[in-house]
Known about the structure:
The chain is α/β, with parallel strands linked by helices. Helix content is 47%, strand content 12%. It has 3 domains: 3-64 and 282-462, Glucose-6-phosphate isomerase like protein, domain 1 (Rossmann fold); 94-263, Glucose-6-phosphate isomerase like protein, domain 1 (Rossmann fold); 465-500, Orthogonal Bundle (Phosphoglucose isomerase, C-terminal domain), CATH 1.10.1390. It has helices at residues 6-15, 20-26, 30-33, 52-64, 67-76, 101-125, 142-150, 169-176, 196-209, 222-227, 254-281, 288-302, 320-332, 364-369, 389-408, 435-456, 467-480, 489-500, and strands spanning 35-38, 41-44, 131-135, 160-164, 184-189, 215-219, 235-237, 307-313, 350-353, 376-383, 425-432. The strands form 2 sheets. Strands 1-2-11-10-8-9 form a 6-stranded mixed sheet, with helices on both faces. Strands 4-3-5-6-7 form a 5-stranded parallel sheet, with helices on both faces. The mean pLDDT is 97. The chain binds 6-O-phosphono-beta-D-fructofuranose. Residues 137-140, 190-192, 195, 198, 244-245, 330, 463, 466 line the site of 6-O-phosphono-beta-D-fructofuranose. 6-O-phosphono-beta-D-fructofuranose binds next to loops.
Amino acid sequence: xxxxxxxxxxxxxRMGNATLRGLVDDDPAxxxxxxxxxxxxxxxxxxxxxxxxxxGALLGVAGDMALPVxxxxxxxxxxxxxxxQRPALHTALRSGLGQxxxxxxxxxQARAAHERMADSIATLEASEVTDIVNVGIGGSDLGxxxxxxxxxxxxxxxxRLHFVGNxxxxxxxxxxxxxxPRRTAVVLVSKSFGTQETxxxxxxxxxxxxxGDRMHxxxxxxxxxxxxxxxxxxxxxxxxxxxxxxxxxxTVGFSIxxxxxxxxxxxxxxxxxxxxxxxxESPVEANLPLRHALTAVWNRNILGLPxxxxxxxxxxxxxxxxxLQQLVMESLGKSVRTDGSPVATATVPVLWGGAGTNAQHSFxxxxxxxxxxxxxxFIGVVHPAHGHSGSHAVLLANLLAQSEALANGCAxxxxxxxxxxxxxxxxxxxxxxxxxSLGALIALYEHSVYLQATMWGINAFDQWGVxxxxxxxxxxxxxxSGKGEARDPVTRALLAEIHxxx
Length: 502
Ligand SMILES: O=P(O)(O)OC[C@H]1O[C@](O)(CO)[C@@H](O)[C@@H]1O
């Protein structure tokens, strides 16, 4: 076991069987004291299974591990992505807090690309284009897809936005169905410009458009985009210093900016910048991303909870769990430390979730009475963008009720009807769902992920685990197409079945 976890385990032992209900009842100030506010986000951690002393120990660990120093290193462009020898400067895309030459240069590149993106969007706005299709996958899809969906109340209405990610061509087919190629622009987003799915979908879209005039690209590999047939004037740059899953703040956010306008996009960046300043400058005891990260580590390593649920009580945030699955699980799904040695702690929890109240009618049964305790992040929005105050009151009442029910449980003489309770959750309340608050919310999770990775000694910015499957798929392609044999016997048997139906 990692030595830094020992005092935390000692805290858990001291707390013994303390329950959430007991913690709140015995400490009347806890409900308010265990909360933090940053700009448009209020966070309440009172229903996490730690008392003040345990929290103090966690904050002590944060200091001992020099987490504030690690945060400064991130902003200043230290080589935090060790296996690829790169910085991870997503903060330079939205705030001016990074010091030194590397961060300054990145900011300059980001500013210039941002201006070019604004010009491209202005040109499209002045054209006859009515629809824009974002073609990309993973980080080149999930962030833009989430943000365009979440900010639907902020859309200018100038364009309809569409997304094609899956190599399953039925997605492209269904998206293109009903679109007019003469009034549609395509933006091919791929940091590497080597992602098979995106290149195949890009080729489908290129053929469908019949002209390269409305084909745009975003890539760190400009030469490959040009070789693909995209006019160099329509290729917007990104860089190896920004990770794909951290890239929606860059030109990768083209579709977001097209949807909500450059002013809206700047508000989105501004919200993230607000969280950046807070993450970098606020003391450990008042630092929201740090508290979020310490809570995650406590739940994973001290309480041994293997999964984490994210439960947005806002239909506009329904894609947030899917977005976070990449951010969290691609970043933290590691078993070796940055030096290659095995980790001495459990790392990434399985992240899952869905929008309330719908999820209450699907998997909440397991949250309340299943044998695994699942910590949850509830995300609510105080002011809706619609006028149906009655519905919104019901939505918020359900959010509050679920967090309360999970924590307090309910005894019953009939064991089928008893709720064990003592199930932890955090409640995040956004004043309203705006570009600013969404930017701040995403940046909160980004920083939390980085801090968790720092505590575990792992690299949050590489993803070698996705390569093997890609390689095997490449090797298997001839066999799937009936031009070869698979080596693996199970795969061979499955191919026989597939071909038997051919
Ligand atoms: O933007 P690209 O280079 O097409 O990559 C898409 C995605 O593929 C991955 O490299 C691996 O799944 C992700 O990290 C990335 O966001």
